[in-house]
Automatic annotation (TrEMBL):
Protein name: Trifunctional enzyme subunit beta, mitochondrial
UniProt keywords, alphabetically: Acetylation, Acyltransferase, Endoplasmic reticulum, Fatty acid metabolism, Lipid metabolism, Membrane, Mitochondrion, Mitochondrion inner membrane, Mitochondrion outer membrane, Transferase, Transit peptide
Annotated organism of origin: Scleropages formosus (Asian bonytongue)
Known EC number: 2.3.1.155, 2.3.1.16
Domain Thiolase N-terminal: 54-324
GO molecular function: acetyl-CoA C-acyltransferase activity; acetyl-CoA C-myristoyltransferase activity
Catalysed conversion reaction: dodecanoyl-CoA + acetyl-CoA = 3-oxotetradecanoyl-CoA + CoA; hexanoyl-CoA + acetyl-CoA = 3-oxooctanoyl-CoA + CoA; an acyl-CoA + acetyl-CoA = a 3-oxoacyl-CoA + CoA; butanoyl-CoA + acetyl-CoA = 3-oxohexanoyl-CoA + CoA
Main localization, broad class: endoplasmic reticulum
């Protein structure tokens, strides 16, 4: 597959704009952000007869922080509770008005495996209110949100909080499998003789700890290695990746300074004070980025630390309701959540191409085109992953050979993509990113006067997600 892609796509023109074009896009984005709010463009609504309208009332997140920094002493349920309480406080929603809570996470702490439930109880939510946790790698919060949509659409609930959490500062580390089996057997031993016999079988190698795997179970390959091969297959240059990383950090910094990241809460960290900003946003220069060495495939790879999303701690939460319930409670919704799809591909050569597969499916499902989309919020796992997806969507060969489609999706306009930064700069707490994407899309629609947003993300296992969001009428 990779060799076929290289052969057919190596002559494609580069999609990433050069530095001057990126600067122009940033200037355009900044002026758009600073202008007065524009009335949403008049397009057809995606409401469907007989289908309940589900709205997003508000979305929040804790500051996303580099792992091993300020949240170093927090467990996942601490961050999840902070996001949940922040959402309730921001919306003045009574705790007893919540019908259900669902959170996404990836690397689970065994003591709080249902982190949604522990966060809810810690936040003072009634023990009568159910909560469950889902996992779907980097689209876990996306799955949490769509699960909430399903609960409301089915008439099971009217008010659901969905979100996600991840802390890479407190990853569970286990004994080796042989040691675990020995200890479990030892726990069942009834006599001293049995215990001594089992203890005598323990070898030094048994004591080697097992760290959480950052490789694909099915391929035994890290996501970074897959991304490096993907960029080579699609002919994405090192220069293009550095430019995109530079763009992400520059746009995130401008959005942060302009107060556009209004979903970020202030969180009190005991012993460290109040934290209210993401700390991974680090604008640099192209000259500095060019000095960085490849991090995965050495020495000839093209992916560097700057063009990769970093290990992040953080949590997010969104308040979803049926439209009738939101209006009855006096809320002004921000957006409708419309059609969504989940897709799955080959986890080796197409691990990170979820957006390419999911985008045309969700557009067809909604009956709109790429040109109708005003705001794009795509997960930035790697700069090369984003650029490879852009090339895939603009390739007739890829559409026909890999997707079984007659023609390509088209050119995704870079001037509409991730204008307030993305996972490369804001951070990527695995289980929380999906809710950040949706909230950013909703807030950008409101600020920029758009009507439709498309949210898309890739995930480990070769999976992907896309959703259409429609601005609520002013």
């Amino acid at each position: 597959m990779a060799s076929m892609l290289r052969q057919s796509l190596r002559t494609f023109p580069a999609i990433a704009p050069r530095t001057a074009q990126f600067a122009a896009a940033r200037s355009l984005a900044t002026s758009a952000h600073l202008q007065a709010q524009v009335q949403t463009k008049s397009k057809k609504t995606l409401a469907k007869p007989g289908v309940k309208n589900i709205v997003l009332v508000e979305g929040v997140r804790t500051p996303f922080l580099l792992s091993g920094t300020i949240y170093n002493d927090f467990m996942a349920h601490d961050l999840a509770r902070a996001a949940l309480l922040g959402l309730l406080n921001k919306t003045s929603l009574p705790k007893d008005a919540v019908d259900y809570i669902v959170y996404g996470t990836v690397i689970q702490e065994v003591k709080t495996s249902n982190v949604a439930r522990e966060a809810a109880l810690g936040a003072g939510i009634s023990e009568k209110i159910p909560a469950h946790t889902v996992t779907m790698a980097c689209i876990s919060a996306n799955q949490a949100i769509t699960t909430a949509v399903g609960l409301i659409a089915a008439g099971q609930c009217d008010v659901v909080v969905a979100g996600g959490v991840e802390t890479m500062s407190d990853m569970p580390i286990r004994h080796s499998r042989k040691m675990r089996k020995t200890m479990l057997t030892l726990n069942k031993a009834k006599t001293l003789s049995q215990r001594l016999t089992l203890l005598s079988k323990i070898r030094l190698g048994y004591l080697t700890p097992e760290l959480p795997a950052l490789t694909e179970f099915s391929t035994n390959e890290t996501m970074g290695h897959s991304a490096d091969r993907l960029t080579a297959a699609f002919g994405v240059s090192r220069r293009e990746q550095d430019e995109f990383a530079f763009r992400s950090h520059s746009l995130a910094k401008k959005a942060q300074d302009a107060g556009l990241l209004s979903d970020v809460l202030s969180v009190n960290v005991p012993g460290k004070g109040i934290v209210s900003k993401d700390n991974g946003i680090r604008p640099s220069s192209m000259e500095q980025l060019e000095k960085l060495k490849p991090v995965f495939i050495k020495p000839h790879g093209t992916i560097t630390p700057a063009s990769s999303s970093f290990l992040t701690d953080g949590a997010s939460a969104v308040l979803l309701m049926s439209e009738e319930k939101a209006l009855a409670m006096g809320y002004k919704p921000k957006a409708y959540l419309r059609d969504f799809v989940f897709v799955s591909q080959d986890p080796k050569d197409q691990l990170l191409l979820g957006p390419s597969y999911a985008t045309p499916e969700v557009l067809e499902k909604s009956g709109i085109t790429l040109d109708d989309i005003d705001v794009f919020e795509f997960h930035e796992a790697f700069a090369g992953q984003i650029l490879a997806n852009l090339k895939a969507m603009d390739s007739d060969w890829f559409a026909q050979t890999c997707m079984g489609r007659k023609s390509k999706v088209g050119v995704l306009p870079i001037e509409k993509l991730n204008l307030w930064g993305g996972s490369l700069s804001l951070g990527h707490p695995f289980g929380a990113t999906g809710a950040r994407l949706v909230t950013a899309a909703v807030n950008r629609l409101k600020k920029e006067g758009g009507q439709y947003a498309l949210v898309a993300a890739c995930a480990a296992g070769g999976q992907g997600h896309a959703m259409i969001v429609e601005a609520y009428p002013h």
